[in-house]
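Hey, weird one. I pasted the Glutamine--fructose-6-phosphate aminotransferase [isomerizing] sequence into the form twice and got a warning about non-standard characters only the second time. First submission, copied straight from the form history:
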Amino acid sequence: EKSGYEHFMLKEIFEQPKSVHDTMRGRLLVDEGVIKMAGIWDHIEKFKNANRIIIIACGTSWHAGLIGEYLIEEYARIPVEVEYASEFRYRNPIITDKDVVIAISQSGETADTMAALKLAKERGAFIYGICNVVDSSIARITDAGSYTHAGPEIGVASTKAFTAQLTILSLIALKLGKHNGNLGNADFMSLIAELDAIPKKIEDVLSSTHELVQNIAKDFVQATNFLYLGRGYNYPAALEGALKLKEISYIHAEGYPAAEMKHGPIALIDENMPIVIIAPKKGHYDKIVSNVQEIKARKGKVIAVVNRGDTQVSEMSDYVIEIPETSECFSPIIASVPLQLLAYYIAVYRGANVDQPRNLAKSVTVE
Ligand code: F6R
């Protein structure tokens, strides 16, 4: 069942070229210049007339939601809020029949997400689901939706479901933006071509960084803390990188928007603090360069995820992981892959049970 891999998690990390491709298949028609999504198209008036979109999720799916917010606001220009299901359901939120709620859930069974949706439904919102498990409870309560076609995810730590969620959110944002005229045809065409190339780029990252990341992991087996930093689209990717590490290796890790460092976490930095920094060319690169300078001035150990051929950040960093370039909005899909591998190998070298981490369940059916 693990097809020769030591753990489901590693198998699932390596399945991502296929799971992302499967999630786009039949939807992204590059030659025709079309994104086909019946769930969106059949309810296009709901999206067109929405006052705002509220994305509801937990955990990794919530991180995907944050990236969805950036995507939908940038390309479709519809206001988006992202809520933890557990907070939303207990705070008497303002919600009306002019709101569209998007629920993101791999399992489709998360109790808090389900309860939040029931509340939104009672108040008349239109509910859209992004689930991986077909016919799950959340998939059934929604008015419409798009399945991620990631295939069964067995490892408790979500990997391929996350990148499939990002794929769906990208498709939705581009489709809505094209439809409502906020995204011009030329930009739309170049973005869909970029998106179509993502599976190949994931394959490239897997083969070019696998060994390197294993070696980096060996140096951090004894670490007790980690910071993960990113800006823009890669800020949620930093949150997700930190979550992967803490849940399977039990090393404390925090994700932060890089610019927030000086508002507190910079106090933590010394020669014992490893800092993973996501710094692709497109996306506030110059700002990231100065963040890295600030870290190095305090002797933090920098593990940088950069684009191939990078020099500025690379020269200052202790470890460099190179990934291929893509549009800024899709870069979290690519950048997440080496971070999944890093968490995986650190956990394996610490002897942790990566597929079944302590205290965690694959599907959280209690609140
Ligand atoms: C992290 C992880 C959890 C889930 C969360 C939501 O790797 O697996 O944080 O993402 O419990 O689960 P779903 O997406 O099934 O609603």
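That's the output from the first submission. The warning seems to come from a hidden character in my clipboard, not from the data itself. The chain has 15 helices and twelve strands.
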